[in-house]
Amino acid sequence: MTRRLPRKDVVIVGLGWTGSIMALELCRAGLDVVAIERGPWRDTATDFNIGTAPDELRYAVRHDLFLRTRQETLTMRNNSSQTALPIRRWGSFLPGNGVGGAGSHWNGQTWRFLPDDFRIRSHMIERYGEGIMPEGHQIQDWPMSYDELEPFYDKFEYVAGISGKAGNIKGQIQPGGNPFEGARERDYPTPPMKQGYSQELFTKAAKELGLHPFPRPSANLSTGYTNPYGCSMAPCTYCGFCERFGCSNYSKSSPQTCVLPALVREPNFEARTECEVTKVKLSGDGKMATGVVYVDAIGEEWEQPADLVLLCAYGLFNVRLMLLSGIGKPYDPSTGEGVVGRNYAYQTGSGATAFFDNVNFNPFAAAGSLGAALDDYNSDNFDHGPHGFVGGASITNAYTNGRPIQYRPTPRGTPAWGSAWKKAVRETYQRVTNVGAQGSVMSYRANYLDLDPTYKDPLGRPLMRMTFDYQPNEIKMANWMAERCEAIAKAMGAKTTQINRLNTPWSTVPYQSTHNTGGTVTGNDPRTSVLNRYLQSWDVPNVFVMGASTFPQNAGYNPTGTVGALTYWALDAIQSKYLKSPGALVQQ
Amino acid sequence: MSANVKTNWTGTRAWLRRMPMRRIVAATLLAMPAAALADSDNFVEAGRGRALVTAGDCVACHTAPGGKPFAGGLALQTPFGAIMTPNITPDNATGIGSWTADDFARAMHEGRRPNGTRLYPAFPYTYYTKVTRADSDAIFAYLRSLDPVSNSVDRNTLPFPFSIRSSMAVWNGMFFTAGEFKPDPNRSEEYNRGAYLVEGLGHCGACHTPLNALGANKADRYLQGGQIDSWTAPNITNDMQAGLGKWSVDDVVQYLKTGQARGVIASGPMKDVVENSTAKMPDADLKAMAVFLKDRGAAGGPAPTPVAASDGRMKVGEAIFVDTCAACHVRSGEGIARVFPKLAGATVVTQDDPASLIHIVITGGQAAATATHPTAPTMPSFGYRLNDEQIAAVVTYVRNSWGNAASPVAADAVKAIRGKVTGPAD
Questions:
Q1: Could you report the per-residue pLDDT of B387-412, keeping only the tens digit for each?
Q2: What is the mean pLDDT of residues A41-60?
Q3: How many CB atoms lie within 10 A of CB A526?
Q4: DSSP-based three-state secondary structure for A336
Q5: Would the CA dihedral through B299, B301, B303, B306 be positive or negative?
Q6: Residues A227-248 pLDDT 10s
Q7: Residue B38: pLDDT band by 50, 70, 90 thresholds?
Q8: For residue A226, how many C-alpha atoms fall within 13 Å in the half-sphere facing its CB?
Q9: Kind of pairing, strands A269-273 and A33-37?
């Protein structure tokens, strides 16, 4: 039997970056807030203690911080002619679990999308004509501009303390920064990280090729920092245990370091952990949410009534919760109608490996966002006319880690075990580096999310089904980028290089990227979007959805900076408009 | 959502939460319906009492781990055995519900219960005797306003012969001088306010003064540093070497208000004092306490000679420091502002008694979290992988590097503290 709890002003589903920011700001606005999180409570002091945090076997191999697939997973197929099967061990992407969410185990690369990314459809057609748009695409402009988001990017960067070098302050190009970036109001809160020898070679080579390298913006902080919430951080020690790990050194921006110390002091905040929200409960006419239903750690079911419901779980799970709750019309690829699950997108990875003689790159002196990057081939920073594809990539030379179990680079063709493998590992570890291209993925009619007809979770609810493959546009783009990467690797002085083209068809097995986007996209047209420009449901106006599931398509960057900016953007609308007059903020 | 009502009410709550306590009392008074104002003077009195209870940090001892505030049941460790703190909520059967204001004042001023039996000075009546009767009454009024909690506490846990409460009559004769605080007419009002708080409700000396064999503070070493639960309570006289001599009045205020000053971060029992008490006190009272502590004089031992860098213990200690400590506290001992405490020049490091240093290396610990500095960084435990000799070496190194000078630490001292602060081995 479902027991009904006393009403709250706000219920938040998921306590990661977006949930914790929303909770803190809405508590400070005087609202009673409860956050419901299906994983455990986690904090730096107890869970990311230096004595246990850098445990590669536990965290990187055995996935301690991630969702257990027996609790929830997805089914996957490359196209709708196939039968989808459940992912039983995470591979291609790694959904987080517990307080902090992906914000605990991320690398920390914190980008702003480029101004053109927000109006990519209009921009590409204006510059190149309709002919450049790929077959079967559903690319659409974002409903807000870069300039509108700029103050909120700034806000997130200052809460997270991001270390970087501005390339464009109020229209003035800044030497040493990214000259392609949108104008920003002020510089990053902390200076860029110290770069390694490999990045020195990359920077020099890129400049010689006429490109514009700069230190990558990083949530592994270069100096001590205290953010506007009073939360303090310490400088990164370059230990190389970022991605898949919590930071024990208070150096990686996360909900734990940047928000929770202030949030837990708020008397009208409550967190319920190890409680899984099973659906958003709707009023009889389906036009308002009345709260959420959740199941606690011992299987008891509870109803938490609330006036405002914020879906702040990992993007994929926000999409599933919308589908399971019946909010918005599910997308049907055969008719192209419906919106929930539409425009799922991902990320491309390609590049070149560079082998050197007589160098010691010391890959163990690393950090998740340490690295030098360039944007010459991102978005529409270059002439797409001769190439015939849409999109681009950020190109980076970086070491996120040199950890003993999983960082064992060897040249292609090396045996996977035995004395030849050992010899290759010994010879390669110190003298290999990588130039990588992280590319955009556009949205297509054929790539989408829906509920699986066969497989269910332990609570009997259908799993979500992912239908995705790289389309010819992305393959062409990523492989062209791999050639650009190889040219840079050669200019760095590599003795030999090895080109890494996009792996197709897309497979769930090797790790690629946790940048899953779309499914509850934001837009100005309710026929092609789930959320209006304030990330508010078109159908149920007291439901807002945060996170990368709101992206209309993916850009050539890591998503978290934009996720943070969108959170503060939506928060501003909730505070300045919604709380004064609850209801739809955009009329249909 | 009934938007308008909602917005107004939430606005009011936000405003209430941000108001200083004294103003809330006044504002609530105006907003209360007339019927609830039957005892309006008492309401003001209770609000004043709440501030005094905060200054006295009563909640720290009168609350069991995980228990209801003020319902007692914490086992206070004394050299004579554990004493369970009483329930001071107004429950008739198990608390102080049947007490009168006179009964309460007698406990505060004389250390006696309503029936005349004697309290142990673990309840610091030796300090509270200085509290004015008006303040005692206000504290009582506040405690009366709490929800009664039924929590029966065994109040007779001390072993024989300490179990004989009447023996405290003799003790009192030797170590207790009853009497309210008398301001010094030659000093400023601020100094006297500070003295009243430090020597009365604040009972700072209870920890910051060494104890004699009978558990009384050594009057001749008042505020020169003591030990509590195997933590060092440093010298808080104005002594240049070990005390507050290099701290300004503002430094002391910052420390009490935020838990941090001069790169030092409160931990151990002082974390609780800051979080529960001083961080919530009015700035004027903190400044008065700081002025008193800075102006009342300096006293401490002679400056020690540093252990030479060439000493074998220093070399071992340095190697351990570089491997284990320097990532956070930095090679120069400067630490990281607001996150990792500074060790160079930190007086807590160079107290003659090294208990805190040893304790925190063995068990780890968490710093104070306050509204100004909500991040409460943690020192991890190293007791599991550093043996007594190694801890003695690294602690000796920290006490004698970067200009620090203090007595070396022997492995036996580490062993003694390890025995007290860690449970039996698995």
A1: 999 999 999 999 999 999 999 999 99
A2: 93
A3: 17
A4: coil
A5: negative
A6: 999 999 999 999 999 999 999 9
A7: very low
A8: 12
A9: parallel
Q: Do A262 and B374 touch (CB under 8 A)?
A: yes
| H-helix or E-strand spanning residue A307 | strand A301-311
Q: Which residue has the tokens 């449901």?
A: A537
Which of A30, A44, A264 has the CB atom closest to B13's CB atom?
Answer: A30
Instruction: Classify strands A543-545 and A348-355 as parallel, antiparallel or unpaired.
Output: unpaired
Query: Which residue, among A317, A316, A245, A328, has the nearest Cα to A276 in the 3D structure?
Result: A317
Task: Name which of A214, A493, A234 is nearest A361 in CA terms.
Answer: A493
Task: Kindly report the backbone phi and psi dihedral angles of residue A9, in degrees, each rounded to the nearest multiple of 5, phi listed first.
Answer: -70, -45
Rounded CA-CA distance A529/A143 in Å is: 10
pLDDT in tens, A510-535: 999 999 999 999 999 999 999 999 99
Mean pLDDT calculated for residue range B213-221: 90
Mean pLDDT of A257-280: 98
**Distances in whole angstroms, Cα of residue A266 to Cα of each of A247, A263, B25, B277, B373:** 24, 5, 21, 18, 14
Establish if B114 touches chain A: CB-CB under 8 angstroms: no
Residue B169 — pLDDT band, cuts 50, 70, 90? Answer: confident
Say whether pLDDT at A570 is over 70. Answer: yes
For residue B350, which amino acid is it? T
Instruction: State which amino acid sits at residue B115.
Output: N
- Contact: A261, B337; criterion CB under 8 Å: no
Angle at A180 (CA atoms; ends A174, A184), nearest 5 degrees = 60
Instruction: Quote the tokens at residue B8.
Output: 């107004």
DSSP A6-29: PPEEEEEE--SHHHHHHHHHHHHT
Q: Which two tokens stand for residue A354?
A: 């560079």
Contact B328 A235 (CB under 8 A): no
Q: Name which of A90-94, B199-203, B213-217 the model is least confident about.
A: B213-217
ipTM of the complex: 0.91
Tokens of A367: 């950090």
Distance in Å, alpha carbon of B373 to nearest chain A alpha carbon: 6
Which residue of chain B has the CA closest to A583? B1
A250 touches chain B (CB under 8 A): yes
Chain B residues in contact with A231 by the CB 8 A cut-off are 374-375
Alpha-carbon Rg for chain A, nearest whole angstrom, is 23
Q: Is A265 on the interface with B (CB under 8 A)?
A: yes
Residue A135 is given by DSSP the state: T
The reply to whether A54 touches chain B by the CB within 8 Å rule is: no
CB-based contact A232 B375, cutoff 8 Å: yes
pLDDT at residue B164 in the model: 84
**With contacts defined as CB-CB under 8 Å, which chain A residues touch B374?**
229-231, 261-262, 264-265
- Identify the residue among B332, B363, B375, B385 best suited for mutation to test binding to A, counting A beta carbons within 10 A and taking the highest: B375
Among partner residues A226, A229, A580, which is closest to B338 by beta-carbon distance? A226
Given an 8 Å threshold on Cβ–Cβ distance, is A234 in contact with B11? no
Under an 8 A CB cutoff, do B374 and A49 touch? no
Locate the chain A residue with the closest alpha carbon to B2: A582
Report chain A's mean pLDDT, rounded to a whole number: 97
pTM reported for the whole predicted model: 0.93
The residues near A245 (Cβ < 8 Å, ≥ 6 apart) are A48, A53, A54, A59, A60, A65, A105
Distance from CA of A580 to the nearest CA of B (A): 7
DSSP state of A58: I
pLDDT of residue B34: 36
Element (H, E) at A517: strand A517-519
Is the predicted pLDDT of residue B379 greater than 60, yes or no?
A: yes
Alpha-carbon span A323 to A288, nearest angstrom: 16
Known catalytic residues of A are: 515
**Is residue A107 predicted with pLDDT exceeding 50?**
yes
Q: What structural domains and CATH numbers belong to chain B?
A: 2-175 (no CATH), 189-295 (1.10.760), 312-421 (1.10.760.10)
